[in-house]
Amino acid sequence: MPELRKDPITGRWVIIATDRVRRPSDFSRESVIVEGGRFCPFCPGNEMKTPPEVLAYRHGGGSNTPGWSVRVVPNKFPVLRVEGNLERHGEGMYDKMDGLGAHEVIIETPDHDATLATLSEKHIESLLWAFRDRTLDLKRDIRFKYILFFKNHGEPAGATLEHSHSQLIALPVVPRQVQEEIDGSKRYYDFKERCVYCDMIRQDAESGTRVVLETEHFLALCPYAPRFPFETWIVPRKHFSHFETSDAPTVENLAWVLRTLFRKVDRVLEKPPFNFILHTSPLHEPSMLHYHWHLEIIPKLTKVAGFEWGTGFYLNPTPPEEAAKFLREAGLS
């Protein structure tokens, strides 16, 4: 029988359509295959085809030359621009502000064919340090209120270039979805005097039915009320509200978790397109007892259609318990 499940953080309702339950093999999907052979501005030797780098980890050579392992450049076609002032305007009853912000591309590897599933743990760790370093640098600009790191892998997920990369956008406002999580977490904390994410970690780790993998530092799980089939969260066991405060053992372990999880996803779902999002606290807020940074991985297996747009409900044909079981039991050979 179908179930209505309520997300304990945002209060969002999800329909788990058990009458039309779908296993991994039931989804019509197109695997992401990196073909190469075409000009790629992110490949070594083409550094002058991108805007000048703002950060690079390199083994040799000078700025904007080959020899790098991770490279960060401004987006050539930014959705927001650093230049200007944060001016708010009114047009009668309507509000607007200048398109102020920063939009950068993290070129994750010089290897055109590599993915997060095939990169080494040490390389993924470097990528995570790049996220942290860029956050700490942009945090000095008081005009920015929030930084979103995200990755679109594969054309169905929004990627326009196949060379492995992620992006960051620094915003002058806190995104509504993040604010809903913060507000929902605060309501839970005010009522129970506990962090909802910490409670979720304790309960799910004890039951194990939605756990994909766990380590000393992290729990990877399919959330109780997932919007999408095989949606998976990575949540630190220790309470941290800001990603940029993570210490070296945490970052090192997260690299292992990410590589392992994406290898499982590739095996179970045959290299699907996906979106990867880092949710953390607003830049200038002090440490929050009620909010917990986390990563969300969303394979692109279904489409949002009229019912979802019309109601705000999400329709998910795969119970998270089933999704977690498939991922948990996936081998890595």
Structure explained in plain terms:
The protein is an alpha+beta fold. The chain has a single domain (3-75, 95-328), classed as HIT family, subunit A (2-Layer Sandwich). The chain contains six helices and 15 strands. The strands form three sheets. A ten-stranded antiparallel beta sheet has the order 3-4-7-9-8-13-14-12-11-10, with helices on both faces. Strands 1-2-15 form a three-stranded mixed beta sheet. A two-stranded antiparallel sheet has the order 5-6. A hairpin with a 3-residue loop joins strand 10 and strand 11. The protein is globular and about 60 Å long. The two termini are 36 Å apart. The mean pLDDT is 91.
The secondary-structure element order is EEEEEEEHEEHHEEEHEEHEH
Which ranges are low-confidence, i.e. pLDDT below 50, for 5 or more consecutive residues?
none
How many strands, what sense, and barrel or not for the largest sheet? 10 strands, antiparallel
Overall average residue pLDDT = 91
- Binned, the helix content reads 25-40%
Kindly report the CATH topology: HIT family, subunit A
How much beta, percentage-wise? 15-25%
Distance between the termini: 36 Å
